[in-house]
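Before drawing any conclusions, I looked closely at one protein, both as residues and as discrete backbone shape codes, quoted below without any editing:
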Amino acid sequence: MTDQEFPTIHYLPPLDRQPSHLSRKDVVARCLEPGLSRDSLEPFVKKCAARDFLRPVGIDAADKRAPYLYEIDSVLIAKCLHTLAFASIEVDGPDGIGRAVSLAMKSFAVEDHFPNGVPKGENVNAYFRAFGPSPAAWAILDYRRGVTGWSLHVAATLDDAGKKRVGAKLWNVQNGFMPNLFGGPEPVIPHAETVLSLDRILPIILGDREGMN
């Protein structure tokens, strides 16, 4: 699968860089943990950026090279993808696992929150603003206020025609948030499922070394 098969063009505003803005090298640095080197992580994160798996927010107005700027949610996306790849899961392969994980972590799905339809009078935009700019950011915000239990679920199943389907979602089982992994109303039982606990990953990317295990 080539980089050209993924959309990489963003029309992003130039930004005066703020402390919350991260370069790609900053993303790499926050993904590091004992046993991992910058040399091993940098090519992986570069590939994630090229394949549009991360969530750029703008370009650095002070840099003539116009590099993309990211926020902390892109670090969580990159770290989860690298953890899956470390476990020999082909995140950039033809099954589209990387794409499924990326979409689940950087884009809210209305049906995940309102499986029976949006209630009359509900302001959907205001509803989602309360969680931050992405599901990954929501998990980070929760962690910072003491809410644990977030996990990334990646599952695969076969449809009636024998075609493999991949689904990914962020869940918080202990708080009752378990959206449909595959989309659509039909019940689908995964043939295989991988679960990453964000309670291990979040302390790493946020620099809380005492919270690592």
